Amino acid sequence: MDMTSQQALPVSQAIAWEALNDIAMLQAAIPGCESITPTEPDHYDVAITAAIGPVKAKFKGKLRIEDKQAPSGYGIHFEGQGGAAGHGKGHATVTLEPTGAHQTMLHYTAHATVGGKIAQLGSRLVDMAAQKMAADFFANFNAALEAKYPPPATTEVAAPAQAPASGGGLFGGLLAWLKRLFGG
Are 99 and 89 within 8 A, CB to CB? Predict the structure, then answer.
């Protein structure tokens, strides 16, 4: 299975980098993620419950971050076992491209292989499940980013209020009319 895509993030590149290295934020955003536990620097044990077609299983795996180039990107190697459901392993590359003061484009490519019952489901079903999981992740991740890092308030410059020609609203207008009427 191969996936390549991009996703707009509503934050600067530095904040996107920080968020992609925030274990709690990632765990909350990954669908079915039960835990991400650091075992050593840039190495993690991961537990995820996932459904791929009719096969639902709890996967336990290992994830390793490599080739960190802060704040531009990194590589990820992963492998997981889901018991009778099967297994998977692969790698991904994530790059962050600033596209504005508060906008970053995340580009990713992933390659994975699966075995066991999952592989018997067929690549089309596995690809659809992976695409749905990625879409759900980015929806959750962007919502978390917007909650934690709200966009800066836009300051609109209000046009100065025009004073009525007569000055002072209704009362001022009435006075001006009376002055004109009585020549005062």
Answer: no
Lowest mean pLDDT, pick from 47-61, 116-130, 146-160:
146-160
* Token representation of residue 44: 């993690």
Classify 101 as helix, strand or coil.
Answer: coil
pLDDT per position as a tens digit, 50-87: 988 888 889 999 999 999 999 999 999 999 999 989 99
Write down the H helix ranges in 3-152: 13-20, 23-29, 117-120, 123-148
d(CA 18, CA 44): 17
- Bridge-based pairing of strands 87-100 and 33-40 is unpaired
Domains of the chain: 2-148 (3.30.530.20)
Token reading at 144: 């978390």
β strands within the chain, DSSP E? 2-9, 33-40, 43-52, 55-69, 73-81, 87-100, 103-115
User: Are 60 and 45 a contacting pair, CB within 8 Å?
Assistant: yes
Q: Are 73 and 96 a contacting pair, CB within 8 Å? A: yes
Q: Give the pTM.
A: 0.79
78 Cβ contact list (under 8 Å, min separation 6): 46, 61, 62, 63, 64, 88, 89, 90, 91, 92, 112
Question: pLDDT tens for residues 109-120?
Answer: 999 999 998 888
